[in-house]
Design brief:
The protein has 16 helices and 18 strands. By secondary structure, it is an alpha+beta fold. It folds into four domains: about 180 residues, DNA primase, PRIM domain, CATH 3.90.920; about 35 residues; about 100 residues; about 55 residues, Ribosomal Protein L9, domain 1 (3-Layer(aba) Sandwich). It has a four-stranded antiparallel sheet, with no helix packed on it. Strands 6-11-10-13 form a four-stranded antiparallel sheet. Helix 9 runs antiparallel to helix 12 and helix 10 crosses helix 11. The radius of gyration is 25 Å and the shape is globular. The structure holds zinc ion (2 copies).
Length: about 425
């Protein structure tokens, strides 16, 4: 960011904090949390800060106008101690980070691209580790977040809460807090006392379960003994067996609409055979106890396992393991602005989450601005429904939230607010 743009963004952040300081989140046991900030003008993080009262915290933010604001998910005896051991860890919220960046969204091929800085080769979609043409690792990446990306992240978040945290882990929804991160996804905080005691290794077990790591269908689906019925999973089974059984039921009920998806896994011939025997298969899987005899007989064990694998892939949840297993994590403070987008971190109730979309109303800023693009931006790219494509050095007039978003990402400079 050039000096003029930094000045403009900083003063806009200041207006926000002066006007909306009451929106700055007050975490429970605030006194026992570590706070950390990154400023506009200096590199690096200012860490190990602690505040006695919410007012002190708000005053600090209004006086310093940080670019990024974080707080510890952990509760410490002495949060301001510089040595992690001296802080005296008591417990920590469990945090799940669901980031559009980690999801295989199809829209990525519409808005992400990369270019090899060694040979100039470029392509759309996710960047490779090394250039397939020349083998260089010197690759420039351009990524974008669109409304579809955030929609995927939102659905993943709802799945985490509704299919895992509440039913499987027995967490009271009142002890779950969800926040839009201000950029690419959502943070889910579990503030249940029992769970807050868990060690890093125990948290890893939770992640493995949610991501279905180590789930071996080859073991869960043994070979059928000739002439015997083949017992199936029950939709009421706990854990992954029940999840798979429910997903299988859904798949078979919607079989005709999803036939091509099934064909892709078991082949055309087998999909036909499934369709021919569909009613019988559904009756059997809903039987008490359920049977997968016809299902097994028609497509065979290998295909059955392949079919169940796609159900697992659908049901598992892509959480960022590093975040969840970290018991001393710093996480964005709700109510503060994200310095890479200018959007606030927003706490969402479960109903708000269902209605959440990436749109201009998320931004607290109004008005327009003149900007100059610092890089070429593909013609089809939009943010908040506004087209932002153009060549390097192009001058544009855009809405203020868009101008802030592009400048914070380093893609534009603000000439003036109009
Ligand atoms: Zn190359
Ligand atoms: Zn997208």
């Amino acid at each position: 960011m050039d000096d003029r743009t930094v000045k403009i963004i900083e003063s806009l952040f200041k207006t926000y904090y002066v006007k909306h300081k009451h929106k700055i989140y007050e975490p429970p046991q605030l006194k026992n949390r570590e706070f950390a900030f990154q400023m506009f003008k200096s590199q690096g993080m200012i860490r190990h800060l602690a505040f006695e009262t919410p007012d002190e915290l708000r005053k600090y933010i209004v006086n310093n106008i940080p670019r990024h604001s974080f707080y510890s998910t952990a509760i410490y005896i002495l949060p301001s101690a510089h040595d992690m051991d001296e802080k005296g860890w008591i417990n920590a919220e469990i945090v799940f980070d669901i980031d559009a960046d980690h999801l295989d969204t199809e829209c990525r091929n519409e808005h992400d691209f990369w270019q090899c800085l060694n040979c100039g080769h470029k392509d759309k979609g996710k960047a490779p580790e090394v250039c397939p043409k020349c083998g260089s690792k010197n690759i420039k990446i351009f990524t974008w977040v669109c409304a579809k990306c955030l929609d995927r992240a939102k659905n993943e978040t709802l799945k985490l809460i509704e299919d895992f945290l509440v039913p499987d882990f027995g967490i009271n929804p009142n002890n779950i807090m969800v926040a839009f991160s201000g950029h690419r996804g959502f943070h889910i905080h579990v503030m249940d006392e029992e769970y807050m005691k868990l060690s890093s290794e125990e948290r890893r077990e939770l992640v493995d379960y949610i991501k279905a790591l180590g789930l071996k269908l080859e073991i869960l689906v043994p070979k059928r003994r000739k002439g015997k019925e083949f017992p199936g999973f029950d939709v009421n089974d706990p854990g992954w067996r029940g999840k798979i059984a429910r997903k299988l039921y859904d798949l078979l009920i919607e079989f005709e609409e999803r036939k091509s998806e099934v064909e892709g896994v078991v082949g055309k011939k087998n999909a036909e055979k499934l369709l021919e025997n569909l009613d019988r298969i559904i009756v059997e899987i809903m039987d008490k106890p359920p049977k997968w005899t016809t299902l097994y007989r028609v497509i065979g064990r290998k295909n059955l396992i392949e079919l169940l694998k796609i159900l697992v892939k659908d049901e598992k949840c892509e959480v960022d393991e590093k975040v969840t297993i970290d018991t001393k994590r710093l996480i964005r403070l709700p109510g503060t602005l994200h310095g890479k987008t200018g959007l606030p971190v927003i706490i969402l109730g479960l109903e708000d989450l269902e209605d959440f979309t990436l749109n201009i109303s998320l931004s607290p800023f109004k008005g327009k601005a003149k900007i100059i693009l610092l890089e070429e931006i593909p013609q089809n790219l939009t943010i908040f429904g506004e087209n932002v494509g153009g060549k390097m050095k192009d001058k544009k007039e855009v809405r203020l939230p868009t101008a802030i978003y592009l400048s914070c990402k380093g893609l534009a400079e603000i000439e003036e607010i109009i």
